[in-house]
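Quick sanity check, Porin:
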Amino acid sequence: MIRKHSFRGVMAGFATSALALAVSAQAFAGTVTTDGADIVVKTKGGLEVGTTDKAFSFKIGGRIQADADSFDGFYTKNGNRADESYLRRARLEISGVAYTDWSYTFARNFGDTGTKDNWNEASISYDGWKPVQISVGRINPTFGLEEAVSSKWITAIERSAIYDLAPWLNSHEDGEGIRLRSTFADMFHAEVGGYRQDGNQDEDGQNNTTFVARGVFAPIVQDKQVLHFGLNYATREVEAGFSDSIKSRLSVRGTSEDTINGNRGTFGGAKLDGTDQAWGAEAAYMMGPFSIQGEYLTRTADGDAVANGNDNDLEASGYNVQVAYTLTGESRSYKLDGGKFDKIKPSDKKLGAWEVFYRYDDITVDESAIAPSNAGLLGLTFDTAEASAQTHTVGVNWYVNEAVKISANYLNTSVDDIVNANGDDDGDAISLRAQYVF
């Protein structure tokens, strides 16, 4: 009898085995070396095998993030409190080096059901032209400081609402392409990439391309002090009649996970034709356990006057400011390679590290060819509505150890010229997360 095995089944079995192996490896520590001192096996923080000359290596890691949200008011359709619990991310990551100058990364997400494609990254890189690295494949574009930081180590549970103004900037679903990046002179990081756009094709079936660039200047990079500045630019061409709308969760993921009563309001939109571009600026300063950072984003897209029935383009802008303090005295770590903050390592293995923070987000859709959600309830049209939102987030993070992080956030939001179906223009939410990293 011949038995048939599906490719999907084989891959699922492999992923499960690799995940179990990596998680079990977390329980051990130390380094094992062969007789010839050729191979080193590291089991602290995942599983890594590599040669001592660093010509070859293989690492398995990942993250599990279990979330729960409770929200009301504008965050819901009818204004009544709703709640949602879900597996935000269950990601398996495989990376390594081959023949010294070649590297690879594969990242597959088994949670986050809101995306249509769960391959976060699948890329091959050449590192032989130091300090320049060239990568091809599926790559996450990077626009903005919070987007540069891994979801494992962002301060708030969800990133700022300003990224909802132009979700194409950091979309891994449109991420097939090529990227150049470099870190040099101990204070500069730069990257630029061209990425295929999914669903934006011309009449011949050719995909348009998105270009994203980011430059970072960090004149101070020390263990307990960092000064960081960054600029971002992105542009894409869109075909006539390409439809785009600006919807925001206002940093509460449960609003889209809850398909019954969750409200992800439409702040504006348009059918586009021509150039869609965005600019961004970022700055951060860290001194010991204290840090402050902020970002600004503005977007302008050419509207299709014929398809829209009006001459309105699509214009939006937003900014955020965040302050954080580690009560137990630890500093946030920072990586110039990538221009980003990283984990907080607890100095007390029993107490862990405790961090508190506050973030303010402000987004505005200045001009739109499509009226905001339920603007008719306010007697508004696209000619008079200028939808905006202001969100306050306070939270606490407990870094139990280098693998476990527990987070709790409280959010309060208010909106202008946009309401839910019940007429609410404000809302509250509580978000919780338990995270395990290996």
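Posting the structure with no commentary besides this: DSSP finds four helices and 21 strands in the chain.
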